Amino acid sequence: MSIDGSWDMTVNTPMGAQASTVVFTTDGDTLNGEVTAPQPNSIYDGKVDGDTAEWKVDITVPMALTVLFKVTVDGDALSGTAAAGPFPPSQVTGQRS
User: Fold this and answer.
1) Which is nearest to 68 in space by CA: 43, 48, 51?
2) Between the CA of residue 97 and those of 7, 76, 88, 89, 91, what are the distances in Å?
């Protein structure tokens, strides 16, 4: 299933739900993307394999961290985890927008 397109995503962190909008494009097994909200940012080290995808994004708020996302796409929904630093993985959900 293709992840290409715009997604409204939520990461359920210990500090509460964090919403974002991400636009993904694929080129073969390479995943590219831009976080458009709440703060513009680019994803990197993205890859896709069938209906699974993973990528990294660097955040600065509330602290500087690299977040590794691993998700599975099912139609217009995605789910998976986001792991950052020493913290346990957080649940990720998303809907194609």
Assistant:
1) 43
2) 5, 8, 28, 25, 19
Q: Is residue 36 within 8 Å of residue 28, measured between CB atoms?
A: no
Q: Per CATH, the architecture of 5-96 is what?
A: Beta Barrel (2.40)
Residue ranges for the chain with pLDDT beneath 50: none
Q: Which of 45, 81, 41, 48 is nearest to 64 (CA)?
A: 41
Q: Where do the structural domains in the chain lie, given as residue ranges? A: 5-96
Give buried/exposed letters for 5-31 (b at 16+ CB in 10 A, else e): eebebebeeeeeebebebebebeeeeb
pTM over 0.90: yes
Strands 16-27 and 30-37: antiparallel
Q: Are 93 and 13 in contact (CB under 8 A)?
A: no
